[in-house]
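Bug #77: duplicate submission created two jobs. Keeping one. Sequence:
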Amino acid sequence: MTREETLRAILNSPGPWDVIAIGGGATGLGAAVDAAARGYRALLLEQSDFAKGTSSRSTKLIHGGIRYLRQGRVSLVRESLRERGLLLQNAPHLVQARSFVIPAYSWWEGPFYAAGLKLYDSLAGQLGLGPSRILSREDTLRSLPTLRPEKLRGGVLYLDGQFDDARLALTLVHTLTDLGGLALNYARVESLLKKEGRVSGVRVRDLETGQEFQVHARAVINASGVFVDTIRRMDHPDAPSTITLSQGSHIVLDRSFLPGECALMIPKTDDGRVLFAIPWHDRVVVGTTDNPASETALEPHPAPGEIEYLLHHAARYLVRTPSRRDILSTFAGLRPLASSRKSPSTSEISRAQALEVSASGLVTVTGGKWTTYRSMGETAVTAAAHTAGMEPRPSRTRDLRLHAGTTEPEAPSHWRCYGGDAAKIRALVKEHPNGSERLHLNLPYQICEVVWAVRQEMARTVEDVLARRTRALILDARASVEIAAKVAQLVGTELGRDPRWIEEQTSSFIQLAKGYLP
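Kept job's structure:
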């Protein structure tokens, strides 16, 4: 369904929706899919593009969180490991197991990390990915051939999950539609509607046309990430803040810095965090930082100090020292952590979810992470149904195979993220002139993928295509700049835009991409 068709369906919808989810990131999509899977009429509204914010800027991990064991948050780790296992079953085209190696440079580190990882393994239960094991020095270097060998004693290998965050978000949009729900991007909630003191819907502005309209619902879920307090203050102007912002930044390097199939886990940095260097889409993602942030933003940027921090720690472990000129792209995301006055630093604030139901019935859910998006959605919908007096229905998402889920490999390999839809994209190659032509020699993406993004995934801008439908902006910001005009022409042709729009889109994206270069 195109955006135009979706908007018409919303405007012509008979009667109120059962559930409106505000926010097109992991949590909002999880809630909307859970509601639709239960048979409720579900609508999702996103002020920008799906996964524009934090949900496309993660460390690309579906994991239990080893460092939370050190903090004693065993229940959080157990829940995350359970959800990791479910995601591997329900989205096999998007989530895969990845081997991680923790190098040991002191005699005690190997046994110490191995003991902690055995607990990690046991908490996963039957949904575990395989046992961790101690590696010899030689096996460690075979697994991580570019690891610094000086004083290396060995290592420990364990398995965790890896995924493409923005592609999972888009898959959830498809899944929602498959279940009879609707999702609309560039639709900003301007205010809440109330009837007899209860939240009864929202007033929405279509940011493409400026048109405003009202949408009524029995329950409204506020899952707007770093903007949850903005929505809460539409309900009650004096509502206190419920979140603490933390910025996580990453750098992307060429694959030659970490060849092979194993990721590197750095167990303790100068500020006590863990750090990862992970093979991803034939690049290496290094991250993440965890620094307090004071302002919400749709487009946060890494601070110079964060980039130096990541380069410094990568250089400690890699034979080849990365520099700023080696960085292909940088990106940052803001985490909406449930507020804690007890924690002196954002890295110590729990990633557990937090749920609030206001006196008027607005359900707000925050905290959590991509790994637990499904359980957060389930919790939010259960609370919304109870608050609105709807017929209680059990959640069905625990065993729900997501849209186009398949384990069949695809060629080219990066098409795996499309799952069963890859065959439909292949058909576009025959339909569209030069459909199989690569957009850039340094990127795997083809012209047919741009056409698919516009026709089937509600891409509206060059940024939508290069940042989230494909991951070109994150994989190589300079290459993305070089193809901006070509992509603008393709998107403009599909949407029927004039030459001025194409020129403005090209210029706007180039300006945006500058923020992804150090």
